[in-house]
Amino acid sequence: MKTLFSSMVLAAAIALTPALAQAQTGSQTARKVFGGDAAHLQKAKTEKQARQDCQLQFRGAKESKSALRTKMNACVQEQMQGN
């Protein structure tokens, strides 16, 4: 009985090996296809660039901190979208 079970496990392992190898190869291919840099939107900026530009824009503004924070967040999101 023990030998029969061992034989069945060995046969299953041998049968599944090619399927596992194919699955791994497929994931490597997907990584190559999707692993590159994202396509750049026209005039879109990174978060750091957008934040720097917005800080320059709002420098010296005479508004409350909460109002400036709200406007800064909106400005950063808008510039990251490329608008």
Describe the structure.
There is one protein chain. This protein is an all-alpha fold and 83 residues long. The protein has 2 domains: 1-33; 43-83, no CATH class. 75% of the residues lie in helices and 0% in strands. Helix 2 packs across helix 3 (65-81). It is rod-shaped and about 85 Å long. The chain starts with a helix and ends with a helix. The mean pLDDT is 77.
Class based on secondary structure composition and strand pairing: mainly alpha
Helix amount: over 70%
How many helical elements? 3
Question: In this structure, how is the largest beta sheet organized?
Answer: none
Overall mean pLDDT score?
77
Helices and strands, in order, run as HHH
Beta-strand residue percentage: under 5%
Low-confidence stretches: none
Q: Sum up the overall morphology in one term.
A: rod-shaped
Please tell me how large the radius of gyration is.
Answer: 28 Å
Amino-to-carboxy terminus distance: 72 Å
Number of domains: 2
